[in-house]
Amino acid sequence: MSDEPISGGMPLPDLSGRVAVVTGGATGIGRATARLLNQCGVRVFVGDFNFVPELSSEDVRLGIDQIGCDVRRESDVAGLIGRANELGGGLDILVNNAGIGMVKQITEVTEADWDACMDTNLKGAFFACKHAIPL
């Protein structure tokens, strides 16, 4: 990804001084969201459990903080939110982006598959909101 703005030519709002957490922000939509927020002047903290080294180094160079976080674990999410609050001086923006899907017939989905999906997509968002709202 280049340093070119990714806003599609629209002027970016000035969000300087704001702090954001983006879960699932190591790749894809989460990473693009983190980078766009960064371009708007936001201090961004990305939580993910699977950082890609070559992408991570570029994001760190831009000032995007990366914190290991498995959103299925409340302690990980609390740590991510707490670290953003501690280092950023608060929290203004929460992007619950972490998610997984299942590409198989429903008759092939196991209980473990279902639990992993619900824990990531639903419980993870709940944990993030639970710890972000009081800030």
Please describe the topology of this protein.
Elements: E1 19-23, H1 28-39, E2 43-48, H2 53-61, E3 65-68, H3 74-88, E4 93-95, H4 111-132
Parallel strand pairs: 1-2, 1-4, 2-3
Helix pairs in contact: 3-4
SSE series: EHEHEHEH
Q: CATH-wise, what's the superfamily?
A: NAD(P)-binding Rossmann-like Domain
Using DSSP, what is the number of strands? 4
**End-to-end CA span:** 32 Å
In this structure, how is the largest beta sheet organized?
Answer: 4 strands, parallel
Total of DSSP H or I helical runs spanning 4+ residues:
4
Task: Give the rounded overall mean pLDDT.
Answer: 93
Stated plainly, the CATH topology is called Rossmann fold
Rounded Rg: 16 Å
Strand order of the largest sheet: 3-2-1-4
**How much helical structure, as a percent, in the residues?**
40-55%
Overall number of structural domains: 1
Could you list the spans in which at least 5 consecutive residues all have pLDDT below 50? none
Structural class: alpha/beta
CATH-scheme architecture: 3-Layer(aba) Sandwich
Overall shape: it is globular
Measured by DSSP, the beta-strand proportion falls in: 5-15%
User: Quick one: CATH class?
Assistant: Alpha Beta
Report on the architecture of this protein.
The protein has helices spanning 28-39, 53-61, 74-88, 111-132; strands at residues 19-23, 43-48, 65-68, 93-95. The chain has 135 residues and is an alpha/beta fold. Helix 3 (74-88) runs parallel beside helix 4 (111-132). The termini are far apart.
